[in-house]
Amino acid sequence: MTEQEVLKTGTTTIGLVCKDGVVLAADKRITAGHSIVGGIKKVLPVGKRFAITIAGTASDALMLTRYLRAEIRLKELRSQNEVTVREAANLLAQFVFANVRRMSVIPGITHFLFAGYDKDGVSLYDVFPDGTSTKIENYFCSGSGSVYAYGLIDGAYEKDMSVEQGASLAKKAIRSAIIRDSASGNGYDIVAITQSGVQEVESVEFAPQIDK
After folding, report:
1. Do residues 42 and 171 lie in contact, with contact meaning Cβ atoms separated by under 8 Å?
2. pLDDT at 100
3. Catalytic residue, candidates 11, 12, 57, 65
4. How many Cβ atoms sit within 10 Å of the Cβ of residue 207?
5. 87-107 burial, b for 16+ CB within 10 Å, e for fewer?
6. N or C terminus: which one in the chain shows less Cβ crowding within 10 Å?
7. In CATH, 3-204 is 3.60.20.10
8. Which residue has the higher pLDDT, 211 or 41?
C-alpha cells in the first residue's frame, strides 16, 4: 500500500471561519474499498464549546473522539479552568500522533477538523493524519470530495460572512461533493460553534435506494 493510498479518505468534511463563529459540515457515508457499508455522524461535539469532523478509519476516529471528550473534561475538573481551543486541538494532535505510530497490522489513519470557542473567540484547526495541528484562518476541506467542495467555496467564501451565510455555503458545497463523489453520501450534518456553544444547524439522512 502506497503512502497516497493510506492517506486517501473517502468522505467530505468542511470547516468555515465566519465573523461570529465556525461552521463544520460533513457527509455521512462509510465505505469499505468500493463498497458502501452505512452511514454515521461525522460532525461530533466534544464538549459544550468544541466540535470536530472525522475522516479516515472510522473505529480509530471514534475512539480518539471519546478519548478527547474524556480528557478535556478531566483537565477542566483538575485545573478548575476551561481548556482553550488551542490546548484541545494540540491534545487531539498528540492522540493522532501516537495512534498512527502504534504497532499495528492495520494502520489507524485519521484526519480531524477541530473548532471551538474560548475567551479569545472562535478558532478552527486542521489536525492532519501525521499528528500536526494547523490553525486555519478562513476555510478548509478534506477527503475525496474536497476538490468539489473547494471548487464552490473558493469563489463564494467571504471572511466577514455570518454563521448563517457560512452554513448555507457549507450546505451547497457538501451537496455538490455528494453528487459528484461516490465515496461521499448518505446525508450530511452541519454544526455551528459560536459564543453560545455547539449548535446543530441541519442533519439530513438519505440512503441509496434499491429498486424492487
Report:
1. no
2. 72
3. 11
4. 13
5. ebbebbbebbbebbeeeeeeb
6. C
7. yes
8. 41
Kindly report, residue by residue over 148-167, the tens digit of the pLDDT: 999 999 999 998 999 999 99
The C-alpha cell at 123 is: 478558532
Per DSSP, the residues of the chain read --HHHHH--SS-EEEEEETTEEEEEEE-EEEETTEEEEE---EEESSSSEEEEEEE-HHHHHHHHHHHHHHHHHHHHHHSSPPPHHHHHHHHHHHHHHHHTS--SS---EEEEEEEEETTEEEEEEE-TTS-EEEESSEEEESTTHHHHHHHHHHH--TT--HHHHHHHHHHHHHHHHHH-TTS-SEEEEEEEETTEEEEEEEEE-------
Residue in the structure block whose three cell numbers are 479569545: 120
Distance between the two ends of the chain, CA-based, in angstroms?
38
What are the DSSP calls for 39-92, one per residue? E---EEESSSSEEEEEEE-HHHHHHHHHHHHHHHHHHHHHHSSPPPHHHHHHHH
Give yes or no: 9 in active site.
no
